[in-house]
Design a protein that fits this description.
26% helix, five-stranded antiparallel beta sheet, single chain, alpha+beta, 91 residues
Length: 91
């Protein structure tokens, strides 16, 4: 389930990394939701943090400082009642 305010998701192959980054974002006042990653992106038990569009830059800065590399950062694209995901190219 994707909520209307969520625009991006950050996927981690380790649940531990997902929990750690969730707490980091909470301490930095980035509203987020930790859930299972969509099957269209990750076939196994990956976790994903969903964030709002206005928090993307701050979240990416914190990720770089944490030295934890996500499996990918995706934009959530709504097409009617369906969802597609576009992987962002990070520098």
């Amino acid at each position: 389930m994707v909520y209307s305010h969520e625009k991006y998701l950050i996927v981690f192959s380790s649940n531990y990394h997902g929990y750690y980054i969730e707490q980091l974002f909470n301490r930095s006042e980035i509203k987020n939701t930790l859930r299972k990653a969509p099957r269209a992106i990750a076939k196994s038990c990956h976790s994903a943090i969903y964030i709002k569009e206005q928090d993307l830059d701050k979240a990416l800065r914190l990720l770089r400082k944490s030295k934890i590399s996500p499996q990918g950062v995706y934009e959530i694209i709504r097409i009617g009642s369906l969802f597609d995901y576009k992987k962002l190219q990070l520098k």
